[in-house]
Amino acid sequence: MAGALAPRSCLPKEFVMLRRSALRGVLGMLAAVLAALGTQTVTPGVAAADVSVAARTVYYDASRAGEFATNFHQAAQIWNSSVRNVRLQAGSPASVTIYVDSGWPRAQVTGLGAGRVWMGWQAVNQGYDRTRIATHELGHILGLPDRRTGLCSDLMSGSSAPVSCRNAYPNAAEAARVDALFAGTAAASRAVTAVAGGYTWSGAR
């Protein structure tokens, strides 16, 4: 009908206001959820950066290791692929110096990540694997003592394993121990003091 007024809403005013208020609340909750998801997405990146910063670099000098320098570089790569809290790198200032002589391989540990290592021709001439020896001796520098289990799977078993053993990789327990030592706990510091000293491939400490 001409001139008729448009129908007005039959809903009470109070109901309309309540509905608008509820809508605003839902939108607010949605914004909060999205913000939380955004924070969770960023967090892993921050954590990864923290792990990277925490890793300690131990520099070594293999310039005196003669033809065995390559074996020590390989040994460093093996440790770097096995642990996350420390990195072995050729360079200076070196806290680890590597030598070669006619005796037995050995390590003189002066602190966690510090000391001297000798690659000895006596073990090489008997047929022991060069890279296994190098990785083993660097294991002492990283805080591990000898474990004469006789098992080839144990890097720190040293010469107690058969001469034919070619395994140059630390097992899971050995790698975990190095990571724990370089995590910097008080217990680890006491353990480092306990293992400081001299180790020889052919015999007990």
UniProtKB/TrEMBL annotation:
Q: Does the keyword DNA repair apply?
A: no
Q: State the InterPro entries in the record.
A: MetalloPept_cat_dom_sf (IPR024079), Peptidase_M7 (IPR000013)
Q: What is its EC number?
A: 3.4.24.77
Q: Name one GO molecular function term.
A: metalloendopeptidase activity
Q: Name one Pfam family in it.
A: Peptidase_M7
Report which reactions are catalysed by this protein: Hydrolyzes proteins with a preference for Tyr or Phe in the P1' position. Has no action on amino-acid p-nitroanilides
One GO BP annotation of this record: proteolysis
Annotated Gene Ontology cellular components are: extracellular region
Q: Which residues cross the membrane?
A: none
Q: Which family does it belong to?
A: Belongs to the peptidase M7 family.
Write the protein's name: Extracellular small neutral protease
Q: Which organism is it from?
A: Micromonospora pattaloongensis
